[in-house]
Amino acid sequence: MKSQSELQKFKLSTQLSMLGRDPEQQSGFVNAPVYRGSTVVYKSCDDIRHKRARFSYGTSGTPTIENLENAWSTLCDAAGTVISPSGLGALALALFSVTRAGDHILVTDSVYRPTRKFCNTLLVKYGVSVTYYDPLIGGDIERLLQNNTRAILLECPGSQSFEIQDIGAIVAVAKKYAISTIIDNTWATPIFFKAHAHGIDLSVEAGTKYLGGHSDLLMGLVSATASHWPALRETYDAMAMLPGAEDCFLALRGLRTLHLRVQEAQSRGLEMARWLKRQPEVSKVLHPAFEECPGHENWKKYFTGSTGLFSIVLDRRFDQQNVEQMLDNMHVFAMGFSWGGFESLIIPFDCAEYRTATTWDPQGMTLRIQIGLEDIDDLKNDLRQGLMRLHH
Length: 392
Hints:
Elements: H1 4-7, H2 12-18, H3 45-49, H4 63-76, E1 80-84, H5 87-98, E2 104-108, H6 113-125, E3 129-133, E4 149-155, H7 167-176, E5 180-184, H8 189-192, E6 202-206, E7 220-224, H9 229-239, H10 245-277, E8 282-286, H11 296-302, E9 309-314, H12 320-327, E10 345-349, E11 366-370, H13 376-389
Parallel strand pairs: 2-3, 2-4, 4-5, 5-6
Antiparallel strand pairs: 1-7, 6-7, 8-9, 9-11, 10-11
């Protein structure tokens, strides 16, 4: 396996073809084998006494897991990576690694709803207080700090509502007070946003989405800077929150085409968003690359691209019944809560019921759309027919 310094002389797509595999150690086979196991055997009493082995037990990892950890660390320019069975699990690992009872954290009001639930239940239960903040607050986040603030959680763009945060301004405040920063970077992936290069301490990715790319695995990854890596690894080892071997194999396979797929997602997402913007039934498109998207200037400042997930606001004359008539009769788009796979998805949503620091009032019914790999004309036709059903 090539070292990180050796890989850095190559461009991204070449790196992705090489990461996490070593044919010389794999009897010449291109891809690494899948290791499944719990028990590690030792040659002597002295070896087992000192746990003198690459892996001491299944919960300390396997070559399959290590291959993906190393690959992701290189891609993210990180000191280390841990992998969990879900994106939410990864967020939990990140938060547990930087908090203890009596601490306070700041969380963007636009966060993924299951993350909010985790913060409001388990973290609070174990003595960590939570304050939610306006995702567009920027450097003014300083006024929300408390003496015991230990971490700031960003999600960029915001889940469903797509606000782009001023990452640099928030990181600058955090560093001034030695506060840890965590970001959910699932939408952009490390292809379009290098979190650690922008000063983020812990970057979380739901590998379920674009890394897997085929809607057939659940996975979360957390990469860390050198200062935060020991605590993250200690938390991971204490919880033994390991992924499955087959899921790691699928993630490594997805890694090879990640660059191509997110570029295609960007192209298709932009084409469909521009098309929807021209439809009379749509009052607004919430896509980070569009000027009307909250925080668009921040997207231009920090990101190198966009992917295939965005939201739209329908004209205010349409109600819940109209939306149901539209969505219940789609032929290509399906309704489902995930994204990042090959299939196009569409869901209705309403952030108003759980926002606490901001008011969600888009002046119309809202839909989140994931653009998959189907024919673009088929996607447009399906949406066009759906938009026409809004009138019935």
